[in-house]
Amino acid sequence: MDERHHRPKSFSPENRELPLTMPIERVTPVSLFYRRNHMPYPRVDVRKWHLSVTGYVKAPLRLTYNDLLLLPQITLSVTLECAGNKRALWNPKTLGEQFKLGAISNAVWTGVPLSTVLNLAGVRPEARDVVFEGMDIGYRPDMPASLSYSRSLPLTKALAPDTLLALCMNFEPLSIYYGFPVRLIVPGWYAMASVKWLRRIVVIDHSFDGPYQTRDYVFYTRPNDYTHGIPVTEMQVNSSIAYPIDQQTIRHGRHTVYGIAWSGTAKVVGIHISTDGGGTWQPADWLDPEQPYTWRRWNFAWMVQHPGEYTLMSRATDELGRVQPLQAVWNVLGYMNNSIHQVKVYVE
Questions:
Q1: What is the distance, to the nearest Å, from the Cα of residue 272 to the centroid of all Cα atoms in its chain?
Q2: DSSP 38
Q3: Would the N or C end of the chain have less CB density within 10 A of its end CB?
Q4: 121 with 142: CB under 8 angstroms?
C-alpha cells in the first residue's frame, strides 16, 4: 500500500482518513479505508483465539475461527462513519481527533448474523444489554489501569437481522487493521459500535457502564455533564463535497461538482447543491442506486461564467424526511457533525 495516499491523523494509536479529494469508488478499497483506533493493534494468534459468549445465556459458547466459518453467513454493503467525522469543522473547536471529511468509508462485509450466535447460546429472559470486548488493550488518562475497548448494544439491536459478526471485508478475510479475526458490524450506527478484534460477548441484565459507553461517545453540551449526556447511536443524514475542495482556485467554465451522501438506518434519497451560499438550491444527479446502510455518490454540472468567490453547499435528505441542518448542535466532544457542508471556491 502506498501510504502517501492514506492521510495519517495520528500514529500511536494509528488513525487515518480516506482521501476524499480523489475519485471516490462505491466500495472503498481496503488499502484506503479509514482507520480509527483507541489503542495499539493487538497481537492475534488465530490458532489460540476463540470467541466466548457468556452471561445471561442458557448455553455458554466457545467458538473457534473455524466454528464461525461453518455457520450460515450473509453479505452486506455497509458504510462506517466515525462519530468524530468532520470534528475539525466545528466552530468553536472541540476535543478529540481532528478528523476532516475522511473518517468514513464503505465496504462489503460478510459474516455470521449476531442473532445466530445469540440464539445458539439461548438468551435468558432477564437479558438487557450485550457487551462486546475487543483484544485491543491500552490506557486512558482518566483510568488507573489498562483496559480493553468494550461497548454494548441493547438486546433488540443485537438481535436485529443485519447486525453482523464480520469475517470478511470486500470478500477477503479481515486484515489486522480492521479487526481480524472477527469484528462487529452495526449497520446504520456510528462505527464506535462496530467493535474490532472481538474476543468476548457477555449478555448482561443491566446497562453497561464502561468508559467508552458512558464517558466517550456521549453527546453533551457542557463540560463533564455526563449525567445529561445522550448516547451516540444512529448516524445522521449527511453529505460531503469532494470536488472542488475548500479554498481551491479554478478556471471559469464547466465543472463537475461531486461528493457523497449517506444516512443511518434510513436510505438517503435526496441531494441538493447550492452554488450561491444557500440562496438557491438545485438537485444533483445520483451515481448510485438507493441501498440500505450505504453511501451514494453524486455529481452536479456547474457552469460558472464569471470570476469571483463562490460558496458551494451540499444538503442531503433521507427517506424519513430528515434534512441536513445548516448548523448541527455543537457538543463538547464534537460528535455527529452533519451541518450542511460548505466549500469556498475562487474562480479566475
A1: 23
A2: S
A3: C
A4: no
Q: According to the 3-state scheme, what is the secondary structure of 258-289? A: EEEEECCCCCEEEEEEECCCCCCCEECEECCC
List, for residues 54-105, the tens digit of each pLDDT value: 999 999 999 999 999 999 999 999 999 999 999 999 999 998 999 999 999 9
Question: Contacts by 14-21 with C-beta closer than 8 Å and gap 24+?
Answer: 14/41, 14/177, 15/97, 15/99, 17/99, 17/100, 17/101, 17/102, 17/103, 18/102, 18/103, 18/104, 18/105, 19/102, 20/101, 20/102, 20/240, 20/242, 20/259, 20/260, 21/242, 21/243, 21/245
- Grid look-up 433521507 returns 318
Place of cell 488493550: 137
Domain boundaries, the chain: 3-231, 238-347
Q: How many CB atoms lie within 10 A of CB 252?
A: 13
**Residues 132-175: pLDDT tens digits?**
999 999 999 888 899 999 999 999 999 999 999 999 999 999 99
Amino acid at 202: V
Nearest Cα neighbor of 275 from 314, 311, 245, 300 is 311
Give the sheet arrangement for strand 129-138, strand by strand: 61-63, 51-55, 198-204, 129-138, 147-154
DSSP string, 49-67: --EEEEESBSS-EEE-HHH
**Regarding beta strands 218-219 and 230-231, do their DSSP bridges make them parallel or antiparallel, or are they unpaired?**
antiparallel
Q: Is 0.85 topped by the overall pTM?
A: yes
Determine the topology of domain 3-231 in CATH. Answer: Sulfite Oxidase; Chain A, domain 2 (3.90.420)
Nearest Cα neighbor of 239 from 310, 174, 298, 283 is 298
| Whole-number CA gyration radius for the chain | 21
Q: Does domain 238-347 have CATH number 2.60.40.740?
A: no
Q: Is 296 within 8 Å of 330 (Cβ atoms)?
A: no
